[in-house]
Amino acid sequence: MIKPASTPTLTPADIARVALKRLGEMGLPPTPENYSRFYNAITTIKSASEQSEEELKGAYRVLFRVNDVLDSVHDLTHAVLAELSRSSEEMGTSLEALQATDDRQVVSGLLQHIIDSTGQVYSSVAASQRDLNQLKESMLAVQADLAINRKTLEQDPLTGALNRQGFEHVLLREVKRAQRHGGKLTTAVIDLDHFRDINDRYGRQVGDRILTHFSSVAKAVLRDSDTLVRYGGEEFLLLLPETDLHGAGFLLDRLRHVNLKTPFFQQQQRIEVRFSAGLAQWRPDENGHAMVLRADEALNQAKHSGRDTVIHARLC
Ligand SMILES: Nc1nc2c(ncn2[C@@H]2O[C@H](COP(=O)(O)OP(=O)(O)OP(=O)(O)O)[C@@H](O)[C@H]2O)c(=O)[nH]1
């Protein structure tokens, strides 16, 4: 069931409430320092200190390889230029000598020398072209590594959905796009209901598989242009370009319907998971994070009004 949110705008107290909820989820005491850490977590890209050792190792491996390839390109172009300059000097000297003599034998010797020099330049450029082709292949391999690294950095390993860091990029891109084209953009923050009970009853491993199952169901109802994010433990976020509140409400109804029709089964036992959600449509006077906070606040209201429901944050 869809109900309008009762509070049209977010007050600082609303933001603080959302912040405190996030701090609680992270197990942090609500000190001012932690409050700003929360804010950073939601508004900025993960800092290097928060990246895992593996992520950093991968990033450094790629950087070293890029460095090696660039060094090789530098050495190669330097060698080609030196060779060209030497040959051009030699040919210049031969030409001068050619102009200064009428002796057929000397002319013939000088012409042969020019032909040899041209041949050397040709083979050295041909060798450099082969080397450059090899370097191009190395660069393509580095590019593939970068794509894998980026995936590792921006994807949630459990569900394959985007993580928060990946979401930051998509959010920025989609808000810019909506600004440029006067387009619509809506976000949904979705939280599975009573997930603690599921973990307690069936164990955390089953809980993990239910999270993966839910994200597959969500992916199945989304359009290619929509984005699914694992926003927190049992919390997901949808970013829906070219969609208004009405369309997003329709989509969440479909998600609810498909989710109930395709429950998770554990040893032939049906485990039904329901969800609450908050929806907010981007306003031209706000940034993407403000929209997400409004959706988060609407989600809070959905939880307080008994769960298994979707609340729309007011557009104005
Ligand atoms: N299995 C599993 N559980 C997780 C993961 N991340 C968070 N959780 C669990 O999700 C539960 C969230 O509990 P609560 O914040 O109390 O929320 P809830 O039980 O869903 O209750 P409401 O949101 O109020 O409906 C906790 O038990 C977390 O341990 C995860 O990656 N895997």
From TrEMBL:
Please list the residue ranges annotated as the GGDEF domain: 183-315
Q: Which reaction does it catalyse?
A: 2 GTP = 3',3'-c-di-GMP + 2 diphosphate
| Annotated EC | 2.7.7.65
Please indicate if the UniProt record lists Transferase as a keyword.
Answer: yes
Pfam families, A to Z:
GGDEF
Taxonomic superkingdom = Bacteria
Q: What is this protein called?
A: diguanylate cyclase
Q: What class of enzyme is it?
A: transferase
Instruction: Tell me the GO molecular function terms.
Output: diguanylate cyclase activity
* Annotated PANTHER family: DIGUANYLATE CYCLASE DGCM-RELATED, REGULATORY COMPONENTS OF SENSORY TRANSDUCTION SYSTEM
Alphabetized PROSITE patterns for the sequence: GGDEF
What keywords is this UniProt entry annotated with? Nucleotidyltransferase, Transferase
